[in-house]
Design brief:
homodimer; eight-stranded antiparallel beta sheet; two-stranded antiparallel sheet
Chain lengths: 192, 192
C-alpha cells in the first residue's frame, strides 16, 4: 500500500507495546499461513526482540520452525471479522489467504507474508531458537529485522491515534470473539 | 473493596488477554514495591501461566527473585497518572505505595500486595524459575495461583466493558506516557 513506510528498528517494539491482537504469518516450501495471536509482547528495545505464543499443534508453528521466521501484522478494526476467522481455522485445510481474499506482500528481509491492507503495521521476525521455552510454554522468541507502518497512524516513530484513523486502530481480544478497540489518547501527567 | 470477587483459575488468563498495561507488585523481607509493565501476556490457559518482562536492574526483579512471587494488578483508567508515575521511579528510593497513597491488600495465597482501588483485577503469581529466559530476555514465567476481579466489569468469567464502567477499563501504553484506553465492545462475526 502506498501508505506504508519503513519503521526504524529502534522503534519497532512500539508497534506491539500496547498489547494488540496480531496476525502471525508464515511461509515455507511454497506454502503460507496466517493465524491470529492475542499473546505477544516485546521483550527488548535494542535489538528489538519479541515473544509470541504459538501453540505447538498449529500449522503456523510447524512453518515457523521450518523456516526460522515469521511475520507479525497488526490488524486495524476494519479486519475484526477476518482476525477472528483466521484464529479459528487451520491452514492445513487450505490457504487462508485465498479463502479470505487476503492480499499479502513479501517482507524485504525474510520473505514473510506481510499484510498492509487493513493493517496498521507489520514486523518481519527471525526466530531465536529456544527449544525449552518453545516446548514448555509455546513461547517463541524472535528478533525483529524489518518493520513498517501506515503513515496515517504511525508518525515520526510514534502511534498517532486520532478520530480520522479509527479503522486502523488496534483490536484487543477479550476472548470468545469479543474484542475491545483501542481509542482515545490519554496523556499521563508528568510525561516528557 | 467490596466489589472484588474471586476469579476461577481457568478464567485467569482472560484478565490480561487483551494486552493491558499492568502493575507488578512484590514483597519480601518487610519491604514491598510496585512498578508498571507494558510487556506481559498469558502463555497457558490451564494451568494458568503468564510471562512478564521485568528488567534485571529493577527492585521489582530483585524482590520477585527473592520471594519467588509477584502480583499483577490491572489498573483502570482512573489510575492513568499513577500507572505512569510508578513506572518512572524506583522503590529503592522509598516505598512507592506510601509515596502515592496507594492502598494494597494482601493476596490470599502468596501474600503479595494486591491493589483493588482503581484496579479492575489482580492475579497472584508464583514464579517458575527459568534462569535462561530471565537472563537473556528479562522474561519471567509464573503460574497464577489466585485471581480476583471487580464484579462491576468482570461478570461470570468474562469482561463486560460498558459505558457505565469506563473508569475500570484498561490502559494500553503506546510509549512515553501516551496511552490508549480500551473501549467499545466489538463482536466478531462467527463467534459462538
Amino acid at each position: 500500500m502506498a501508505h506504508f513506510r519503513p519503521v526504524a528498528l529502534a522503534h519497532a517494539s512500539r508497534l506491539i507495546n500496547h498489547g494488540p491482537t496480531v496476525l502471525v504469518t508464515t511461509a515455507h516450501g511454497g506454502v503460507r499461513n496466517v493465524m491470529a495471536a492475542a499473546w505477544s509482547m516485546p521483550v527488548e528495545f535494542t535489538p528489538p526482540r519479541i515473544a509470541v505464543v504459538i501453540d505447538k499443534q498449529t500449522y503456523t508453528r510447524e512453518l515457523a520452525m521450518a523456516s526460522g521466521a515469521f511475520g507479525i501484522c497488526v490488524p486495524g478494526q476494519a479486519l475484526l471479522d477476518l482476525t477472528y476467522a483466521v484464529g479459528g481455522t487451520s491452514g492445513r485445510d487450505g490457504d487462508k489467504f485465498a479463502r479470505h481474499a487476503l492480499v499479502a506482500g513479501t517482507g524485504p528481509v525474510l520473505g514473510m507474508p506481510v499484510i498492509e491492507e487493513g493493517c496498521a503495521a507489520w514486523l518481519e521476525c527471525r526466530l531465536i531458537r529456544e527449544p525449552h521455552a518453545e516446548d514448555a510454554y509455546d513461547t517463541c522468541f524472535a528478533e525483529v529485522v524489518a518493520a513498517a507502518a501506515d503513515a496515517r497512524i504511525f508518525v515520526d516513530g510514534h502511534w498517532a491515534y486520532r478520530d480520522d484513523n479509527t479503522e486502523l486502530q488496534s483490536l484487543h481480544h477479550l476472548g470468545g470473539g469479543n474484542f475491545v478497540r483501542a481509542a482515545g489518547n490519554l496523556r499521563a501527567a508528568g510525561q516528557v
